[in-house]
Amino acid sequence: MTDAAPKPTPSDDRPDGLLAWQLDLYPGNHTRRNTLLLHAVSSPMFCLGCIALVVAPFTTPWIALAAVEIPLALVVQGATHKQEPTPPVPFRSPLDFVARFFAEQWITFPRFVLGGGFGRAWRAAR
Prior knowledge:
mainly alpha
């Protein structure tokens, strides 16, 4: 038995805005347990790295070392998305990349988890 052919890239049309568009596409881009597990670990790591950068000037500069989690999360998530059957929508620009990545970590992934999408995707995963 072979895997199905990759699905075409979803539309980049965002009539209801970035967050609604991203959440709508999220289940189709997170179908493998490996992707889900690594997102469950790397998304909070990314957020902690961001917080470390913000608080470092007010506490100790050493805490900024935790910011290494930011590019680590980016690399891990990028690698898992390449293994998904549905490819991610290409980025419009470097600014679009930053906006989408930050929105995914801080808003879309938590909504996906709290809304039950993570559990449904985990149970349906191949």
